[in-house]
Each structure stands twice: as C-alpha cells, then as structure tokens.
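Example 9 (inverse folding). The structure is encoded as follows.
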C-alpha cells in the first residue's frame, strides 16, 4: 500500500517539472467560441476600447494582473482606453454547457512568441446565440522585480 503514494508523488513531481518547462499544447475551438478570441485580438490590436467592451456581457468583469477589478461595459471601455497592441491568443482547454462556458489559454505578442501570460474567459451565450465574455481573468508569467532594498543608514 505504501508504494502507491510514493509512486504517485514521483509521477506528480515529474509532471510538474515537465509542465513548467514546456508550454501546454493548444486546442482547436469550435468556430463560435474561437470567434471570441479572434474578435478580442482584432479589437486589441486596433486599440478599439469600444469594440473590446462590446465583447463582454453588460455586467462583465475584467480582472487584470495588478489592477483593481472592473465591472460593466462602460467601465471596461474606460479601463481599455489606453490598451492595445500586438496580441495572439491561444486556448489550452474549453468547455461549454448550455449557455455557459469557459476558455483557458495563453497570450503572447505573436503566435510564434513564447507565452507572456495566461487567461481564463468565463462565457455566456446571449439570446441571439452570440458568446460574450462574462469575466476575463489574466496574469503574466513573469513576476515583477522587487525594488532593491534601501542601503542601511550610515552612522
């Protein structure tokens, strides 16, 4: 009985080492779900805050790394007013159940660049059958550098 827990720990440790050094593979999304990512990329590259906000539900959330939460299309538009630039999104996983779903993925400047960060999009399908973002949670892969400690006082 003791061999199983030890073997399990070794397998999990090895798996975490492998996953830490290699990016997760991308998955192909159904077209109606993939559209959310492509529309997001297009609006972000165009620096079009209104188009980005329109991808969200009326009371959607943006939960960005190192920033306070933002709720609602109007606030999202304002939060994205200075955003934009190169962006490539890819999915690791997704799920859909009725009118709710999610996408888990990564972002980078270009499709060939290493991942800069990761995200989770919570999705809701509206009455017209269009998938909208209910929540966008993202964070970077790198940790911000801590400022150097101040020098000790001189006597």
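The amino acid assigned to each position is listed next.
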């Amino acid at each position: 009985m003791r061999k199983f827990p030890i073997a399990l720990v070794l397998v999990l440790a090895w798996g975490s080492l492998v996953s830490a050094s290699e990016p997760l593979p991308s998955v192909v999304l159904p077209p109606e779900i993939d559209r959310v990512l492509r529309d997001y990329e297009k609006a972000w590259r165009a620096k079009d805050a209104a188009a980005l906000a329109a991808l969200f539900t009326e009371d959607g959330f943006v939960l960005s790394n190192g920033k306070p939460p933002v709720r609602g299309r109007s606030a999202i538009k304002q939060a994205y007013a200075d955003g934009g630039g190169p962006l490539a999104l890819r999915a690791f996983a997704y799920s859909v159940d009725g009118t709710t779903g999610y996408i888990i993925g990564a972002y980078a400047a270009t499709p060939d660049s290493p991942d800069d960060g990761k995200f989770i999009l919570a999705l809701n399908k509206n009455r017209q059958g269009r998938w909208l973002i209910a929540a966008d949670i993202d964070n970077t892969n790198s940790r911000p550098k801590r400022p150097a400690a101040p020098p000790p006082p001189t006597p």
